[in-house]
Amino acid sequence: MITTVTLNASIDKAYVMERAIENGTVMRVKEVRNTAGGKGLNVAKVAGICGAKVQATGFAGGFNGKYLEDLARKSRVLTRFFHVEGETRSCINILDPKYGSTEYLEPGFSVKQEDVDRFVEEFSSIIEGSSVVTMSGSAPRGVPSDIYRRLIAVVKKAGRKVILDTSGVYLSEGLAGCPDMIKPNEDEIEALLGIRVSGCEDVLRSARDLLKTYRIPWIVISLGADGAVLACEDGVFHGKPPSLTPVNTVGCGDSMTGAFAVAMERGMSAEEALGYAVSVSAASAMSPITGDFDPAVYEKIRDEVIVERC
Ligand code: TA6
Question: Ligand 1: distance of its center to the CA of 185 in Å?
């Protein structure tokens, strides 16, 4: 089983618009899609479509928290959220013909220190039976910046594998926990290393530097439409998808994380895992629904993904 952690889960509300948005006017929404959201829920939904047994955990609250778990279960994701005071947030994704996707991300509720400590204490029982644990996205107010380091330590003590996909101070402090894989994008790499990263050579150099600096077996740098680079002890590889016209790119990075978790659980090599994850992520860009992909689209794309040693 794969357990996904979403400390700041959300009800993701996608608004499909008939025409381009005009600020300061009344806009009628053509279609509303509510899904269990937050990066870790997108990870969970995609891992479920890949065929894995998946459980989602993290913080949830209020009526929205119950609605979140109901939506997750409808997507074949088991849930074991830690309920706190306050309402689980909503994140709005406006999809319109002119601007594509515009996201409005609410900050979410504040979490008390005692709730954080109790969640960490309960975490070892939450992950029991899981071979891989993923930790994704931002954290609510009140959650200390070393939270992922503390949760990673619990997973490593249990002898399980852990993927960390976050940014800023949560990433830099989480590295001290030595996860089995991280998946920053170029902006997150720039913030982490304090350098400009522009173009393939910079990405390859950054991946090699991170591998040397941190004892993390798989360093993945996601590159959007250009796929991803994976640095590991066997070398550095680039997985490149075919050129596509995306329908909805929100959550594609989360889809990649979900596929890597499945690949890790199935014991794939770094190269196999990279080809698999790049294909799933590209297929998810072809779905209008966040945290979703059509397996038939994946099969077609998989044959066209190129994985080469750099
Ligand atoms: O990556 C897409 C997404 O997970 C959306 O579904 C929305 O929930 C948002 O990101 C949340 O991002 P955050 O960094 O606040 O956890």
Answer: 14
CA distance 279 to 299: 8
What fold is seen in the domain 182-215+217-310? UDP-N-acetylmuramoyl-L-alanine:D-glutamate ligase (3.40.1190)
The terminus-to-terminus CA distance of the chain in angstroms comes to: 33
- What whole-number distance in Å separates Cα of residue 55 and Cα of residue 185? 25
* Residue in 179, 172, 130, 137 with CA at minimum distance from that of residue 40: 137
CA separation for the pair 4, 155 (Å, rounded): 12
For residues 174 and 149, the answer to whether their CB atoms sit within 8 Å is yes
Which DSSP category does 304 fall into? T
3-state class of 85 per DSSP? coil
Q: Which of 4, 8, 12 has the most ligand 1 atoms within 8 A of CB, as the residue to mutate?
A: 12
Cut 0.90: pTM above it: yes
Contacts 24+ apart (CB under 8 A), 294-300: 295/49
158-217 confidence digits (pLDDT tens): 999 999 999 999 999 999 999 999 999 988 888 888 888 887 888 888 888 888 888 899
Amino acid identity for residue 278 in this structure: V
The CATH fold assigned to 1-180 is UDP-N-acetylmuramoyl-L-alanine:D-glutamate ligase (3.40.1190)
Distance CA 272, CA 252 (A): 19
Tokens of 133: 């644990």
